[in-house]
Each structure stands twice: as structure tokens, then as C-alpha cells.
Automatic annotation (TrEMBL):
The keyword Disulfide bond does not apply. Belongs to the IAA-amido conjugating enzyme family. InterPro entries: GH3, GH3_C, GH3_M. Residues 349-420 form the GH3 middle domain. It comes from Gossypium schwendimanii (Cotton). Keywords: Ligase. GO terms for molecular function: acid-amino acid ligase activity. This is Jasmonic acid-amido synthetase JAR1-like. Residues 435-547 form the GH3 C-terminal domain. One of its GO terms (cellular component) is cytoplasm. The keyword Cell membrane does not apply. Pfam families: GH3 (PF03321), GH3_C (PF23572), GH3_M (PF23571). Signal peptide: none annotated.
Length: 571
């Protein structure tokens, strides 16, 4: 289908989506039937006693809810090259590595052609709604995407991050062309072995094609902010390269150098123009539209752990709309952003009922383990944990994501991502999520904003080495801030955790005073470099917001780089 298609038929895509979501319950039954028929011969399902049944009732009665830990032995056998069907009917040829920033180490997750097809369906669906709102002509996209090297498992399967497996798939480039979103950088830059060199070349390609750039994107908002923070440091060097038509010696890989040589020609007029634009900006405000006058929007995942980067991204974007990308994980996709005009903080995701079979565990107080409900049975305003059954061998898999149902599009729910369920700051009866941490940091950061400073990045940890245990918040700040203000920030953080269990524990000293540790500039870049060294890619990197005991190395990097620390006197 894709080969014949020059440009996507937006209205047909939207029409198909409307038809499907009007009958979400039946589509879900049919999707489950298809998954079970395709994979019924797999050992995992054979052991469940389904005996060929494909209805949701039998499926739920026979197949238990699982976490990654439960499936690990099966996935390992697949990775080790077992010949018999273990999780899927057709052989798995590729393994995805999760980012590893949540638990400290990457997980193996099966990846197959069916998962690639659902990826393209999500891309096409959200593009259709986005393009209706913000039409783009046939220009180019400045995409800060990075594909790490695919390795081989013991059994000879390709293994790479989920984004690498997508970017290296032949269908990806065709899809980008069909969506008029062709990357302005050559493939050699995307697959370049050194992230820093690829980032520099992405920026250079963007400047060379500056008038053709229609959108700026990356997998995560963090990568876009990082790219333009880097631009602030290297813009003069980029101008030198453009003026002379010669690539800086900092780019050392021959494949990248030769690809860039084909694009780079001496252009003193463009170098002068960029210098003029940069010199007239005040603190880099509006940098993106200044450099790329025809940019229509900025696109990437901006919800959840990416929300803290929105303030800086808006600073660079000025009036250019920010649109949050779709909702998925290494394990599979869930929903598309079909309301692109909403600000990222209000983004919801409409679940596509044919890309997997979905269940939801209600998160109600005082209920130990409530029964999961189906896609069309969720209630508006309620929070749930997502369970996914995919075409890639995951059955009733607990994703660990908490979502809130904000409404329905026809009969499919629109979900707001809330947080990761297991990312909690907790010492005894207190329970603070990633979202609670983010709100506390935002509140306290207002105090340093008055001094024209910002929190570049942050993380946290529960220190129980002494009794009582206490919360530790790590901040990296953009410049010097007085001790007086930072002491007040520390108190503000402590007061901003409003969870009843936390407040009552603090009042009776069952939880000790919160500690704010300010780290040296560049510390969070060291954490990024640590994950890159483990084989992660920037496209998939998320700063760990809560560093648990399994994540020793990251905790060590944070603790080794503390410049100042403060204890709260708020209680």
C-alpha cells in the first residue's frame, strides 16, 4: 500500500478512524480473535488451556495478568534462538531494548512486522488529524533522531532500542515521505555512531535547508531542548562551516563526513544571515522560528516525564505550536493524539481499538486488586493501569502506566497519561508519584525564576540510610542562586508534597526533613552519557525522576556531583 502512495489521503484516514472508533467493542473482540488465531500455536498460549477459544471471556479466565518479570524466561529463550514458537506463531526476528531509565537496566521486548505496522498506523492517524489543523507543504523536517547500532543476541536476532528498530526499518523512510516529513539529514547522520557528532550535523543540515524546514521534531521533548541548548554553544562554529563550505574537524567518522560533504557548499550569505539572526535574539527567545521561518509546529512526546522541559521549549519556540506525539512504549502502541491544537499539558490520546487488545485495572482506594475492565467499559474521570495484549507476543501484560479517562471519541476512550505506577517516593504511608514530584519542583522553581534562573533538570531519591528516612531532591540550575533563596526552595519543595500520608508523617517526624542537593552544571549530561554508554539512544532517553536502589550508578553520579545541600525547616 505504502509503495504506491505518493502522499497520504488524510480524509480517508480520518474516515476509517471514525468508522472504527464507532464500533470499538466489536473491533476489540475481532482484534483479540486475530491475535489468538495467529499465535494460538505458541507454547505460552498452548499452556493456558484456551483450546482454540478466542473470545474475551475465555481469554481472561485462562490467561493471567503478567509483568515483564513473568515473561522474561520466555523472551530470553526467543533471544537465545529457540526454534519452536514460544510467544508468537511466526518467528520473532528482532528484540527491542527498553530505555532502561525506569529500572536502571534495559528490558528485552519482542519486535515484529505486526508491531511495525501498528507503529505506521499510529503515525498515519495522528498525522491526518495534525495535517488538517496545521497543513504542511512538501518541505523537510528537522528531526533530531538517532539510531544506535543494532547488535545480535546469542540466538542471532537483531537487538536495538525500539526507536532504532523503527528508524532502521525500510518502511519508516517511506512513511515519512508519504507524510511530507522527510528528514533533512542524510541516513549516515541518523545512524552515526557518535550522538554528539550526529546532533551537530542535524543542526547543520537544518541550517542548510532553513527555508524548507516545515517542522522540528524528535521522539522526546528532552532531545529538542538538548539540541537547541547545544546550538547556543556551537552556533559560531556552524556558521564557520557554512561560510567556508568545510566541515569542522570535530566530525571524525568518514561516512558522516562524506555524506555532509555532498550538502555543504561555501555560502557566506547564509552564514551572515544566521549570525545576524542570532545576534539580535534576546536570551535565545524565539530561536526556532528565527532560524526556520516556515516552521509550522514542533512535534515530540511532551507529556509525562517530558512536561518539565516545556517551559524551555516554549522559550525557543515563541509562538510556534507545540504538539505532543502519540502514546506508546517499547512494548507497543496505545493511542494517537487526534486533538493537536490542545497544549501539551492537556493532550489526550484516543485508543486505536485494532492495534491490540486493551484492559484497564481501576485504581481505587481501599480495593486490593480490582477486576480489569474492557476498553469501552472505562469511566470518565477515573484512573486506571493499562494492560496490553499485542501482536508481538505479550498477553495481558501490565504496562505499569497510570492513565486518566478524560472522555470518549465515539466509543473509544481518550486517555491522559498520569505517571508510571512504580515510580513512587515512599517511606512508610506516604505515596508521591512522578507527577507529585514534578508539581513540587515547578512550585519551588518559581522562586529562582525571580532571579532569572531555571531548573535545567531534576531527580529524586529516598534516603533511608538513617532513621527516619527522608526525600532527597537533586537540582541542576542554570546559574548561581543565593543560599537564602535555595533554603526557601527546599522548604517550598517540602510543603508542596501535599499527600496526606507525607504531611502527617512529617509532622510527627516519621519522615525526616526534605533535603535539596544542588549538583554541578553538566551532571545530568553525565547521566545521559552513562546511558549512551550502555547502548541507549538519545531518542529514547528519559531522565530517571526517582532513582531507586537498583540504579546505583546513576545515584553515584548524582551524589558525586553535589555542590551544595540544604535541609528543610518547613515542619
Amino acid at each position: 500500500m505504502l509503495e504506491k502512495m505518493e502522499i497520504l489521503n488524510v480524509e480517508k484516514l480520518i474516515g476509517d478512524f471514525e468508522v472504527m472508533t464507532k464500533d470499538a467493542e466489536n473491533v476489540q473482540r475481532e482484534t483479540l480473535k486475530m491475535i489468538l488465531e495467529e499465535n494460538g500455536c505458541a507454547e505460552y498460549l498452548q499452556n493456558m488451556g484456551l483450546n482454540g477459544r478466542t473470545d474475551p471471556e475465555s481469554f481472561k479466565a485462562c490467561v493471567p495478568l503478567v509483568t515483564h518479570k513473568d515473561l522474561e524466561p520466555y523472551i530470553q529463550r526467543v533471544a537465545d534462538g529457540a526454534f519452536s514458537p514460544i510467544l508468537t506463531g511466526k518467528p520473532i526476528t528482532t528484540i527491542s531494548l527498553s530505555s532502561g531509565t525506569t529500572q536502571g537496566k534495559p528490558k528485552f521486548v519482542p519486535f515484529n512486522d505486526e508491531l511495525m505496522e501498528t507503529t505506521l498506523q499510529i503515525y498515519h492517524t495522528s498525522f491526518a488529524f495534525r495535517n488538517r489543523e496545521f497543513p504542511i507543504e512538501n518541505g523537510k523536517a528537522l528531526q533530531f533522531i538517532y539510531s544506535s547500532k543494532q547488535s545480535k543476541t546469542k540466538g542471532g536476532l537483531f537487538a536495538g532500542t525500539a526507536t532504532t528498530n523503527v528508524f532502521r526499518n525500510s518502511q519508516f523512510k517511506k512513511a515519512m515521505t508519504a507524510m511530507q516529513s522527510e528528514c533533512c539529514s542524510p541516513d549516515e547522520v541518523i545512524v552515526g555512531p557518535d550522538f554528539h557528532q550526529s546532533l551537530y550535523c542535524h543542526l547543520l543540515c537544518g541550517l542548510i535547508f532553513h527555508e524548507e524546514i516545515q517542522l522540528v521534531s524528535s521522539t522526546f521533548a528532552h532531545s529538542i531542548v538538548l539540541a537547541f541548548r547545544t546550538f547556543e554553544q556551537v552556533w559560531e562554529e556552524l556558521c564557520d562551516d557554512i561560510r567556508e563550505g568545510v566541515l569542522t574537524s570535530r566530525i571524525t567518522f568518514p561516512s558522516v563526513r562524506s555524506a555532509m560533504a555532498k550538502l555543504l557548499k561555501p555560502n557566506p550569505e547564509l552564514a551572515d544571515l544566521i549570525e545576524k539572526k542570532c545576534s539580535r535574539l534576546s536570551n535565545w527567545y524565539g530561536l526556532i522560528p528565527e532560524l526556520f521561518p516556515n516552521v509550522k509546529y514542533i512535534y515530540g512526546i511532551m507529556t509525562g516525564s517530558m512536561e518539565p522541559y516545556l517551559k524551555k521549549l516554549r522559550h525557543y519556540a515563541a509562538d510556534v505550536p507545540l504538539i505532543s506525539a502519540d502514546y506508546g512504549s517499547s512494548e507497543g502502541w496505545i493511542g494517537a493524539n487526534i486533538n493537536p491544537s490542545l497544549p501539551p499539558e492537556s493532550t489526550t490520546y484516543a485508543v486505536l481499538p485494532n492495534i491490540g487488545y486493551f484492559e484497564f485495572i481501576p485504581l481505587k482506594e481501599n480495593v486490593e486488586e480490582p477486576k480489569p475492565v474492557g476498553l469501552t467499559e472505562v469511566k470518565v474521570g477515573e484512573e486506571y493501569e493499562v494492560i496490553i495484549t499485542s501482536f508481538a507476543g505479550l498477553y495481558r501484560y501490565r504496562l505499569g502506566d497510570v492513565v486518566k479517562v478524560m472522555g470518549f471519541h465515539n466509543s473509544t476512550p481518550e486517555l491522559k497519561f498520569v505517571c508510571r505506577r512504580n515510580l513512587m517516593l515512599t517511606i512508610n504511608i506516604d505515596k508521591n508519584t512522578e507527577k507529585d514530584l514534578q508539581l513540587a519542583v515547578e512550585e519551588a522553581a518559581k522562586l529562582i525564576a525571580e532571579e532569572k534562573r531555571e531548573v535545567i533538570d531534576f531527580s529524586s531519591n529516598v534516603d533511608v540510610s538513617a532513621d527516619p528516612g527522608h526525600y532527597v531532591i537533586f537540582w541542576e540550575i542554570s546559574g548561581e542562586v543565593s543560599d537564602e533563596v535555595l533554603k526557601e526552595c527546599c522548604n517550598c519543595l517540602d510543603r508542596s508534597f501535599v499527600d496526606a500520608g507525607y504531611v502527617s508523617s512529617r509532622k510527627v517526624n516519621a519522615i525526616g526533613p526534605l533535603e535539596l542537593r544542588v549538583v554541578w552544571k553538566g551532571t545530568f549530561h553525565k547521566i545521559l552519557d552513562h546511558y549512551l554508554g550502555l547502548g541507549a539512544v538519545v531518542s529514547q532517553f528519559k531522565t530517571p525522576r526517582c532513582v531507586g536502589p537498583t540504579n546505583n550508578k546513576v545515584l553515584q553520579i548524582l551524589c558525586d556531583n553535589v555542590a551544595k545541600n540544604y535541609f528543610s525547616t518547613a515542619f
